[in-house]
Amino acid sequence: MENWSFSKIEATKGCRILYEKKYIQKLPPDTTVPEYEEAKKIHEEIQTNFIKRQVDYPILNPYMSNIIAVEKAYRHYFKEQDIEFVAYADVVLETEVSRVILDIKCRYNSNINEKDRLQLLTYLALANQERPVAQNKIGIIVPYNQFMPVTLIDIEEPPPVDLILEEIEKAKRRIPRMTVKTSECAYCEYKRSCDYGLKEIDNNDMQAIAEKYLYLKAQVDLYEEILRKHIELTNQKIRVGDKEIGFFERAYTKVDVPEFIMLCQDNDVPYLDAVKIDTVKAKQLAKKYDILTQAMDKEIKYVFTTKKIGED
């Protein structure tokens, strides 16, 4: 029997090595990804608040008297294909006649994109197969967006479970074409055991160099975090040859700004060139006093870095 989930389907759009380690070799993760740990913590906090009915999302108030379930499991067995599909919905609010399925997203953008919609419709198809209801909504919770943390969509006709089978078939067709994606190395849970970047490359092949750069950058971040945690715990520096790795004192000049300005004024010393405005605090002031925006402008600078781009 084959086992599938929405995460496994999405994984076929990503890195071949990660897919093989996680879903074929079924290896446990060997690397802790701080962003994932933080996301897990946020999920658990929000789910706990739902169970306690202590959430502050006005748009969901009409549904808070419903039956509340978190990490609700849905399963469906496709007998002819010998496939079992399993899904876990973050939050489900139900009555005898209505259902709201919610997924928690650790991001700011509260728009439901195509991936979100497909994931939620997958959950809804399974829920509707299990127990049909008259009114269905799907939505996302984005805790980083304080202005619009919840987005809901009405679904008049839940999709059939065949939608899931179609997505699984698409995923299977993608597998033979999967490639290594070093653009995903930074958030990979198998960094320690991955030796992809050890192979020799042609230094004239800029694409190969870029791929190896992202791989090595992720590896450096991994080892730096390991060393940092060890040194914080033991309070012992690590010596390598004529170098030491650890925490070292660094002196910074601290200026008492009001005192500095007062001394300049009292002694007729021009000081404006020495004063640096805190941009964040200046923007906060400008929200209260609109006239201050007249002193603000945009300056475009180009920096060498790596940026996430949307998929084609």
Question: How would you describe the overall organization of this protein?
Answer:
- The chain has 8 helices and 8 strands, in the order βαααβββαββααββαα.
- Strands 1, 2, 3, 4, 5 and 6 form a 6-stranded mixed beta sheet that branches. A two-stranded antiparallel sheet has the order 7-8.
- Helices cover 36% and strands 17% of the residues.
- The mean pLDDT is 90.
- The chain starts with a strand and ends in a 24-residue tail after the last helix.
- The chain has 312 residues and is of the alpha/beta class.
- A hairpin with an 8-residue loop joins β5 and β6.
- It has helices at 6-11, 16-24, 34-51, 114-130, 162-174, 206-234, 257-266, 279-288, and strands at 2-4, 67-78, 83-94, 98-104, 135-141, 150-155, 238-240, 243-245.
- It folds into 2 domains: 2-177, Alpha-Beta Complex (Lambda Exonuclease, Chain A), CATH 3.90.320.10; 195-307, no CATH class.
- The protein is globular.
Name the descriptors.
312 residues; alpha/beta; Lambda Exonuclease, Chain A; 2 domains; six-stranded mixed β-sheet; 8 helices; 17% strand
Rounded mean pLDDT is: 90
DSSP strand count: 8
Tell me roughly what share of residues is in helical segments.
25-40%
* Major β-sheet profile: 6 strands, mixed
Q: What are the low-pLDDT stretches, counting only 5+ consecutive residues below 50? A: none
**What is the terminal-to-terminal distance?**
33 Å
At the first level of CATH, what is the class of the largest domain? Alpha Beta
Series of H and E elements: EHHHEEEHEEHHEEHH
Rg from Cα: 26 Å
- Number of discrete domains: 2
Total helical elements: 8
CATH topology call of the largest domain: Lambda Exonuclease, Chain A
Name of the CATH architecture of the largest domain: Alpha-Beta Complex
Shape by Cα distribution: globular
Strand content: 15-25%
> What structural class do helix, strand and pairing data support?
alpha/beta
